[in-house]
Amino acid sequence: MDWTPFTADEVQWDLSCGIGPDGHWHGWFTVRVDASALRRLGLHPDQPTAGVTSPSPPGWWHAAAERNARRHLR
Question: Across the strands, what pairs with 28?
Fold first, then answer.
């Protein structure tokens, strides 16, 4: 099943691993997409980054969202 809007030569990804300061292994991905491929989707490298347009929800809202997320993961 091909669900990606990109061809194989337009996307590059890397996995890096290492031992963190806590002594546990950690891994992270770096994904790079060719700028011309993004333009096809209506995106371009000169677009401004996203910015906050309203105040953040109150702290209780974040705490409730985290409790609900943990409840659903069990």
Answer: 16
